[in-house]
Amino acid sequence: MAGYRYTDGRMDISENPFYRIKARAHHNRAKLMELADAQELAGDPDDVSRALSCLINPRKRIAAEVAWFPGVSPTQVDVLLSMLKTPPILLSSAKNLPHPGIARANLLSAGLKRLDMEDRTPSSVAVWIMEISTSFECAEPDMLVLMINDDRVVSGFPEITDISAVRGELNERRRYFRSVIMSALGAMRESDRLEAIMKVVRSSTGDGTKLAPAVVFDMVDLYEVESKAPLARQEQKLQFLIARVRDAAEHNQSDADIANLMGGLMTDFRVWRHVVEPPHICARVRGLKSTRDAMLGAAAELESMLLSMGRLNLAETFSESLKKVFADDWELSYEPEKNQTTGGVSSETAGETPEKSSNYAGELILETDVEIISREKLRISSEFIEWHGRRWNVDSITRMRWGRIPDEGQDAYSVISHRVFWGDEVGWASMDFVNGRLYEKIVRGLWKAVGLKLLRRILAGLRDGNSCRFGAVTANDRGIELERHDGAEGGRVFCAWTDIVIMDKAGAFCIGKSGDSRLWVDFRYLEEDNINLLENAVRIRKKHGTPRLSGLLQG
Length: 555
Hints:
This protein is α+β, with helices and mostly antiparallel strands.
């Protein structure tokens, strides 16, 4: 770390001067000097001196503040720093991360840097990249200035008045996040790297329908630059194969010979299409042309030539092959069951198979193909979930989430994709996809296999006198804590289930106390575990009127 420029915003949390001298953003000048003196005894005095110099200089300090945890309380900062000492795979599914913004992006980028190689699967890396990029996208310079100035008022440092300085540091963080992401991708096998990038691009652009976060565009631009040389070689080969098909047709070779050449051309087209797809999708949503457009133009010319020569069967075969390879249908698909109608599936029977499979223990509730990059089989039975090479015992699952990911550019109820999540005490799995029918089908399968069992375990624990944590509040069999929202008083108030009312809020389950608009709490479906289960229990209790939540076990 010696010689590191603390004025450079492209720093990891462990390289931050706050971290170096164990300081917090609210500490005043005297406290910073005291901490620096203590650290000089245990470390490199020159490095400690550089860190202190950065923190006591109001202008240099901005880089450290933006790369730290702006808007996060000192107590929570201590918790987040301790989380960095745990396996990163646990960090990504932690419940108490900061809200999307620069603090969350800083923490997750540190986690991605520390992610073990065996945990760097395409799906997991794609999730990390999406979390970092979407969190950074939520970093607003105006709000960031306010959060930093709140700490500066306490610490006695002059408030920031030039917002351009913060914008400059945000650009530095953007470059840093891009370098962390590219480093993580660079350590993966080529096929896994492409799969991870494609997952990110599909999810972040809504399958080519909206702009992605800036960090995702940066990632794809760098990927395109790095792929330029191999792509050029592939394109030269494609042009050569197109020329061979044209020459064979002009020299009146047989349809069988030409069809054989076209088969080889289509094989190369498939390989090339996967490589160029991420920059093509990003170019399309930005209203730009891509290399894929030019290559398709060359293929269209070949089709026109075959038509003009009267080779109608060959032209039709070539056209159909092109449609299969280049169809712009990125919506995730699955194989419909034989009893499924075009009008949809009823909630009582969706995805269920009445027979039991001899190959799998328990009743096989759902078996379907989920296509992200390549098709993978999802199996849900009464005793296990099998997905992505892992089998989860249903009884080991302790947490679930599912919900719709909103379109931030539209109103709060607009949806761009869906997410399903489950996990045990040490691991987790999640799926993001656009297909709403598939989402509902999988949720129904998970509810039947896992949700009901997990809810019964939670209710039985409440009945036996235990309490349960939902988000930041605690619930027991008689009621739940609500947060007070009346200004200075704050705090939490315990309310009986009989006094609870359900409030409408997009993307969240929100409950409050009847007759008191100041007491309420909301739970984001995609940020807190088992909120969907809590909502079901609260709604059913309200319908049946039982005073205790465990009263539902009698039904």
